[in-house]
Amino acid sequence: MFFMFDTLEGYIQPGTEEEALVKQIDFSKLPVHLAIIMDGNGRWARKRNLPRTEGHKAGTESVKEVIEASARLGLKYLTLYAFSRENWKRPKEEVNTLWNLLKEYLGRDSKILIDNNLKLKVIGEKKGIPYFVRRELNRVERLTRNNERMTVILALNYGGRQEIIETVKKLLKRKFSPEEINEEIFSRYLDTAGLPDPDLLIRTSGEMRLSNFLLWQCAYTELWITPTLWPDFRKKELFQAIIEYQKRERRFGGLDTQA
Ligand code: IPE
Ligand code: IPE
Ligand code: MG
Question: Which CATH class is domain 29-216+224-245?
């Protein structure tokens, strides 16, 4: 079943908790870029005496729901941390399952991205991604290249430190002089070139760390951490995170506007 994510109408049932939350959202102050560290799949499975891989499978439902809800809300960029540079340390079977699930998702659900005017972009070291997945990623990136409703950025084989090192290497190869280098130039050579920094970062499963995610880009990002495990994460919590974000005062090192 394919649907157009036009508005929230018909998506939120009247009289539900979700509806009450949506009413609290100020649509003129939405985060432009939401980033999510999708964590807790293994613990979700363990709680049910299932293999960790079942947690990853269940997590794909949350991915689909969050993409749809974000697009319907009107967010412009959604970055999902799906595989870190360090995740290769996991048992081979688990690593294979993760890449297989992504390949299946791209084969089965890329039509949802295409039909809903969503653009796919990958950040991370692409050449280290298994070829059977990379090929699909390239296909979907190509097909959605001109879409503009919302960009879904998948962080795959991604590491913030490695990204920074790669950027330094690019600048050296292009023979930039020390005087020419500044934040703006540096940002242009990151994987995230052209994307605004995340306004809000959600991490599920209660861990209070960045785990090498968007280290440069999250300098002034608002953090929201929930104990909910990723496979249990639903739109209701996305709405709660946004409401919470809208209550924050972002000072960027300056002074409180009321001061
Ligand atoms: C997040 O869940 C998925 C990836 C890191 C790919 P985890 O697999 O890290 O789950 P926990 O943290 O072990 O519960
Ligand atoms: C971060 O989660 C990576 C992704 C969600 C893809 P991890 O589960 O790998 O992080 P740590 O090991 O708990 O820091
Ligand atoms: Mg984890």
Answer: alpha beta
